[in-house]
Design brief:
The radius of gyration is 16 Å and the shape is globular. A hairpin with a 5-residue loop joins strand 3 and strand 4. It is built from two helices and nine strands, in the order βααββββββββ. It is of the alpha+beta class. It starts with a strand and ends in a 22-residue tail after the last strand. The chain has one domain.
Length: 204
Amino acid sequence: MKRYLIPILLLVAIGAMVYFSTSSGPSPDEYAAFINSEREKKEAFLRRDPESPFRAIEDSIKPLVYYPPDLKFRVLASLEPVQQKQVRILQTSTGEQARYLDYAWAMFELEGTECKLLILEVMDMGPNRGKLFLAFADETSAKETYGGGRYLDLKKVPAATSIELDFNKAYNPYCAYNENYSCPLPPRENLMNVAIRAGEKSYH
């Protein structure tokens, strides 16, 4: 039976987030330790959670694969709200459709390339309603990373004019591990012309 799921990573340590948001920021070693710790928590969560895509293959689960943490891929983007919000239909990995609402544009420069990503808001009823959703693909997609794109979890801050995009936290949707899950694919606006060598790589 096919299942529709937007995996939302709920393992972020609040205290660490507050620390890393200070003006001084972490050192590369401190930051790497934090990211690696969060990755270990995620893998432990996926091993034990009853909704895990690995639940039927627990004995054969392989370690998740990541790029090394790199502060270069932690960027502060300008945030431009979408003035005339429209419902956006995204195709999913199983050929179904998912509905979202336009929220804002995130604009930044990375590796000398001007980037502009569309942030969406979850419309469907349920625990994720109103949360922000960012799916993207880049020059590593289908080569070094999952071909269906990766996700970033973002925090909604009313009236904010900027937003942090930490691509070291980019993760695979559940369909990257188990094809029975149905995961939204990135909108065409979020197909990036730059290689994001940060975050999670392909599982296999």
